[in-house]
């Protein structure tokens, strides 16, 4: 297949590399000419503008956006709209709020353009080697792009969630669960740190990653982080949040659903910005390991972006 791809940050760049290796024709656009040029050198078709990108694709066109949630998505859609035609498909692979997605889908549908919301998980490793993608929107549009999803994802790692907004809603809840899981891991290692036994955290993470009930990728990433520094001393304890945890709590409040673990993990991120302890450094390290997210430095160190 062929696809236009807008947004060549860490995730988008890796996803385009993956698509190219799978034999797809990919037309790329980004504000960074360096990113466009690098991928052009690897087989992508460079585009100098949104109109140019659409013009390089055969109808019906498929365009994937991998840009930050909020105003950036609307800016791209406004730039694309004059060039799109009935039957074209636009995919929002970022973490847009699901209610924004519903509004955008309705607006595009007035011109016969389909919007798919594709919640994308798996971090940088997933983007490069096989992601997990949750898709909402018109079923016929999902069926049309399924070959792309199959190549982008690990086996059984993608699916149709339902009407417009459902893909982003499922990804929002996924990220809320992620908040809670990382918080529990951080608190557990904080208790181990205080035990007085001089426990080696990398060894614990390795053991827990093999055969235990709590084994999984996050535990493997914890081991990777501890291998760099047993006490994560390069990290400050302030934990950023990108919004999805807050949205999950808001959605639960609106529906009267009790999610105390997720809510507590969101509030913990707020409190982490005024004090520093080991559990917060563990969570900050996990975010950095799976998504390349920046972290606040330990006192006297340099921040990561």
Strand content: 5-15%
Helix content range: 40-55%
Instruction: Round the Cα radius of gyration to an integer and report it.
Output: 20 Å
The description of the largest β-sheet is:
8 strands, mixed
Question: Strands across the major sheet, in which order?
Answer: 3-2-1-4-5-6-7-8
- Element-level helix/strand string: EHEHEHEHEHEHEHEHHHHHH
Arithmetic mean of pLDDT: 94
Distance between the termini: 34 Å
Q: In terms of per-residue confidence, which ranges show pLDDT below 50 for 5 or more consecutive residues?
A: none
Number of helices: 13
Q: What structural category do the secondary elements indicate?
A: alpha/beta
C-alpha geometry:
globular
Question: How many beta-strand runs?
Answer: 8
């Amino acid at each position: 297949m062929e696809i236009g791809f807008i947004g060549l940050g860490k995730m988008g760049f890796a996803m385009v590399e993956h698509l190219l290796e799978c034999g797809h024709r990919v037309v790329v656009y980004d504000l960074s000419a360096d990113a466009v040029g690098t991928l052009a050198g690897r087989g992508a078709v460079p585009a100098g503008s949104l109109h140019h990108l659409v013009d390089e694709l055969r109808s019906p066109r498929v365009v994937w956006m991998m840009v930050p949630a909020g105003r950036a998505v609307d800016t791209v859609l406004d730039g694309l709209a004059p060039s799109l035609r009935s039957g074209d498909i636009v995919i929002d692979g970022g973490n847009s709020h699901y209610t924004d997605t519903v509004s955008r889908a309705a607006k595009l549908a007035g011109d016969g353009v389909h919007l798919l919301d594709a919640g994308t998980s798996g971090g940088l490793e997933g983007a490069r080697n096989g992601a997990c993608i949750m898709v909402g929107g018109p079923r016929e549009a999902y069926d049309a792009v399924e070959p792309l999803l199959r190549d982008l994802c690990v086996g059984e790692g993608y699916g149709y969630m339902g009407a417009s907004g459902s893909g982003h809603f499922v990804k929002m809840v996924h990220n809320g669960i992620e908040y809670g899981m990382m918080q529990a891991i951080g608190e557990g290692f904080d208790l181990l740190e205080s035990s007085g036994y001089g426990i080696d955290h990398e060894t614990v993470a390795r053991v827990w990653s093999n055969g235990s009930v709590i084994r999984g990728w996050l535990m493997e990433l914890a081991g990777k982080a501890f291998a760099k520094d047993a006490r994560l001393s390069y990290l400050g304890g302030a934990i950023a949040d990108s919004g999805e945890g807050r949205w999950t709590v808001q959605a639960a409040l609106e529906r009267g659903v009790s999610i105390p673990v997720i809510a507590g993990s969101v509030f913990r991120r707020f409190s982490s910005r005024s004090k520093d302890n080991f559990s917060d450094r563990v969570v900050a390290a996990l975010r950095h390991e799976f998504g390349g997210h920046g972290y606040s430095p330990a006192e006297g160190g340099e921040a990561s972006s």
